[in-house]
Design brief:
One of its GO terms (molecular function) is DNA-directed DNA polymerase activity. One of its GO terms (cellular component) is excinuclease repair complex. This protein is an alpha+beta fold. Helices cover about 40% and strands about 15% of the residues. It is built from 21 helices and 18 strands. The strands form five sheets. A five-stranded mixed β-sheet has the order 4-3-2-5-6, sandwiched between helices. β10 and β11 form a beta hairpin. The longest helix is centred in the last third of the chain and has 28 residues.
């Protein structure tokens, strides 16, 4: 696969960004700074006595709105003393049903700003709900929160409006009257916007995010996201020495990387990673499939300390049926070019052992590890005495008869696992009938491990056996996403944009695609995770198969995948309180009655 361009954070982009990409600039954002005076602290039992608002944009005042409001409630004496608003003053004033629509029209399309915004916005929302007006969904900026983020305790002892107005020397001093307080808040807002500009806050989205509670490291390092492309691909956080710390993928690299510096990112290990990070590199990819594949390969190659998944694809296990007169199962780490039959890969040895136990429950394969002679007998183990082994060591069974058990395993790996599945289901039914539910759950877990491994192996082999497969998927924005797959490995990826004939693009991809030669085993040229990622892409309804060499892409009708419903039922039983019962009644599991292609 050709190496795509790498973009480092801070480097200039190769195209002009649109307004949608960079966000609404604060210099062109219209703010409506609002302040309310009320008869109490809760809209449930208090009313609005005055509304004051100032509309500003680019530092200029566009208009003002101010009116007294008849709350229809008595004004408590302490409120009248604080605000100077008396019942006599509000008696001739319009009621809220008249004042509210006028204010909503004044503020339409703007960003609401208030000092202690939850209080003012809460009253306005409650009024809209009471009188049947839909809440317009204004973006809201709280100058209290903004001041707490932008100022230190050494500068101001608290974030009260009077304190901030005195600190910034506003032209209007707050007086507990709505319009005066709104005018003072305007001056405070402008001074705070000047302050946060040094924190690289230049758009409305950045301002809203800045107001949220973020770690100081996130705020200090947010410049690492500058200059990254809005394109699918892989991003790599690196420390000062260039060592990869974390690798991720996204359909929009710039947006995803920015999210690491917002309040949405709460993982402590990511904060620790950002502390060490010094730059971010972006690898642009043709589409999401290529990005996912490159992510897996980079993680496997560099093993970044802050990635948890896919770091050690080489640490897999296989269940091998040995090639000898009396075969046995062996758990191995690597595939050999021999006559052995392999089932896997398993992500852990424990899972491989569980699947092997399922085979032993179904057929009496020997579990000893020594090599047996077809002529000379040797002492038997306890398993032979309790009937769990055919005792080939004592020559009680001929190699041809013993081969039937080994063939059942081979058939489960390469074709139909029905023999093993039927015997395990029968065993589960017997245990459930005897109300031995814990033992039945154990056998069910072994069945699931065995069957899931067989399904996975057959799906992988169905693709890795094809020398070359070409697929195309219609892109959301138009055009085609193209992929060339060879032996289960992504050899080339590209796009044919809208209006471009895909065939010439595909011909160029085929000419420059990576040369991939087949190898040993079901995943000879790529990790199982990469091939499964490709399978997910191919299985989408909108993906079209353009061409495939060899016998084509297929799975046997009698293969392991026809037990998909059985696996789903087993998973449902495992998640229930009683793993094999439904409200006290035994639950049995049945195999499908017909094969599906």
């Amino acid at each position: 696969m050709p190496v795509p361009p790498v973009r480092r954070s801070g480097e200039p982009a190769f195209r002009q960004q649109s307004i949608d990409e960079i966000g609404q600039p604060l210099a062109t954002t219209t703010f409506v700074v609002v302040d309310l005076e009320t008869t109490g602290g809760s809209p449930a039992d208090a009313g609005i006595t005055e509304i004051g608002a100032v509309k500003v944009c680019g530092g200029e005042v566009l208009g003002e709105f101010g009116t007294l409001v008849n709350p229809g409630l008595p004004i408590p004496p302490f409120v009248a003393a604080l605000t100077g608003i008396t019942e006599a003053m509000v008696a001739p004033a319009p009621e809220l049903t008249e004042a509210l629509p006028s204010f909503l029209e004044f503020a339409r399309g703007a960003v609401l700003v208030a000092h202690n915004a939850p209080f003012d916005v809460g009253f306005l929302k409650a009024a809209c709900a009471k009188f049947g007006y839909p809440w317009p969904g204004f973006p809201v900026v709280d100058t209290v929160t903004l001041a707490r983020r932008a100022l230190t305790r050494d500068e101001v002892p608290n974030c009260k409006l009077a304190t901030l107005a005195a600190y910034f020397h506003t032209e209007t001093q707050p007086s507990h009257r709505a319009l005066d307080d709104a005018r003072a808040t305007v001056d405070v807002l402008h001074r705070l916007l000047e302050r946060v500009g040094s924190h690289r806050v230049h758009t409305l989205d950045e301002l809203v995010e800045f107001c949220r509670a973020v770690h100081p490291v996130q705020r200090r390092k947010r410049g690492l996201a500058d200059g990254l492309p809005h394109a699918p691909g892989v991003y790599v956080f690196r420390d000062g020495s260039g060592r990869p710390l974390y690798v991720g993928t996204s359909r929009d690299i710039a947006t995803r990387v920015r999210s690491y510096f917002t309040a949405a990112e709460t993982r402590s290990r990511m904060t620790e990673m950002l502390t060490a990070a010094e730059r971010v590199e972006a690898v642009e990819c043709a589409h999401a499939l290529e990005a996912g594949v490159r992510e897996l390969r980079l993680i496997a190659a560099h093993k970044p300390p802050y990635n948890r998944r896919s770091k050690f694809p080489e640490r897999v296990h296989w269940l091998k049926l040995t090639d000898e007169p009396f075969p046995r199962l062996s758990i191995v780490r690597k595939l050999a070019d021999d006559a052995g039959c392999y089932l896997g890969p398993f992500s852990s040895r424990r899972t491989a052992e569980t699947a092997a136990a399922g085979v032993y429950d179904a057929v009496p394969l020997r579990q000893c590890t020594r090599r047996l002679s077809v002529r000379t007998a040797s002492p038997a183990c306890a398993l032979a005495e309790i009937g769990r082994c055919a005792a080939p060591c004592e020559l009680q069974i001929a190699p041809a008869d013993y081969a039937r058990y080994a063939d059942a395993f081979r058939e489960a790996v390469h074709g139909d696992p029905a023999v093993l599945v039927d015997r395990l289901l029968a065993r589960i039914g017997e245990l459930a009938t005897d109300q031995r539910y814990e033992e039945a759950a154990t056998v069910r877990g072994r069945l699931v491990a065995l069957l899931r491994a067989a399904v996975r192996l057959q799906r992988l082999r169905s693709l890795t056996s094809i020398p070359e497969l070409v697929a195309a998927r219609r892109a959301e924005e138009g055009g085609w996403e193209l992929a060339v797959v060879r032996h289960g490995r992504l050899a080339a990826a590209g796009t044919a944009p809208r209006g471009t004939a895909p065939r010439p693009v595909l011909a160029a991809l085929l000419a420059t695609a990576e040369t991939v030669r087949g190898g040993v085993g079901p995943t000879p040229c790529a990790t199982a995770e990469e091939t499964e990622l490709i399978l997910t892409f191919l299985n989408r309804p909108e993906t079209r198969l353009v061409e495939a060499s060899g016998a084509g892409w297929y799975c046997p009708a009698s293969g392991a995948e026809r037990f998909h419903d059985l696996l789903q039922k087993a998973d449902a039983a495992r998640s229930s309180a009683d793993p094999l019962s439904d409200r006290g009644a035994p639950r049995t599991m049945h195999r499908p009655t017909r094969a599906t292609a």
